[in-house]
TrEMBL record:
Pfam families linked to this entry: FAIM1
Name of the featured protein: Fas apoptotic inhibitory molecule 1 isoform X1
Organism: Equus przewalskii (Przewalski's horse)
InterPro entries: FAIM1, FAIM1_dom_sf
Domain of life from the UniProt record: Eukaryota
Coiled-coil stretches noted in the UniProt entry, renumbered to this chain: none
Residues spanning the signal sequence: none
Length: 201
C-alpha cells in the first residue's frame, strides 16, 4: 500500500483562479487596443439568474446578481485614460442574446477603424524587452507599455520631431508631409537612428 506522501492530495478549499461556475456564464470576450495597451474585457450573463459580471483584464468591474430584466446595458471604464465602454445586451430570438461592445459611443469595429486613422503603433524589441509605442496624432501624446511618455517637440526643416527615451535609447517620431492630401502626414519612429516598421492592426 502506498504511503500518503506519493498520492496526490486535493484540498477542497483550493479552487482554480477561474472556477467552473464562473466559466459557465461567460458569454463574450473582447480584446480592445488602447494607447496604454490591449485590454481584455470579459462578460458573464446568467440568463436564468439575470447575473451580469464585467471583468477588465481579469479584475471584476461590475457585478449585479438577480437582475429581473435580461436585456439592457452595462457601462464602465477601461485603461489609464478611463475610456468609456458599454456592453449592450439584446434579445435576438427566444432565449438567445446578442452582446455588443461600444467604446466611446462607437461600435468596437468603428472605434478601431477610427483609431487606426488617429494613432500609429509600433512594436519593438530593445535590450531583451518588448515595447509597444503608440502615437496619438491629434494630441501628439506618446504612450509606451501603458505609460504616457515625457516628450520634447522640435521643428526641423521637413517637419517635426517628438523626442523621448526608452531606457538608454534615444527615440523620436518624425512627422513629415506626404505631399498627398489623402495621406496627410507620415509618422516614422526612429530608435538609435534606425527606422522601426509600423505594427499592423
Amino acid at each position: 500500500m502506498a504511503s500518503g506522501d506519493d498520492s496526490p492530495i486535493f484540498e477542497d478549499d483550493e479552487s482554480p483562479p477561474y472556477s467552473l461556475e464562473k466559466m459557465t456564464d461567460l458569454v463574450a470576450v473582447w480584446d480592445v487596443a488602447l494607447s496604454d495597451g490591449v485590454h481584455k474585457i470579459e462578460f458573464e450573463h446568467g440568463t436564468t439568474s439575470g447575473k451580469r459580471v464585467v471583468y477588465v483584464d481579469g479584475k471584476e468591474e461590475i457585478r449585479k446578481e438577480w437582475m429581473f430584466k435580461l436585456v439592457g446595458k452595462e457601462t464602465f471604464c477601461v485603461g489609464a485614460a478611463k475610456t468609456k465602454a458599454t456592453i449592450n445586451i439584446d434579445a435576438v430570438s427566444g432565449f438567445a442574446y446578442e452582446y455588443t461592445l461600444e467604446i466611446n459611443g462607437k461600435s468596437l469595429k468603428k472605434y478601431m477603424e477610427n483609431r487606426s486613422k488617429t494613432t500609429n503603433t509600433w512594436v519593438l524589441h530593445v535590450d531583451g524587452e518588448d515595447f509597444r509605442v503608440v502615437l496619438e496624432k491629434d494630441t501628439m501624446d506618446v504612450w509606451c507599455n501603458g505609460k504616457k511618455m515625457e516628450t520634447a517637440g522640435e521643428f526641423v526643416d521637413d517637419g517635426t520631431e517628438t523626442h523621448f527615451g526608452l531606457g538608454k535609447h534615444a527615440c523620436y517620431i518624425k512627422a513629415v508631409s506626404s505631399g498627398k492630401r489623402k495621406e496627410g502626414i507620415v509618422h516614422t519612429l526612429i530608435v538609435d537612428n534606425r527606422e522601426i516598421p509600423e505594427a499592423s492592426g
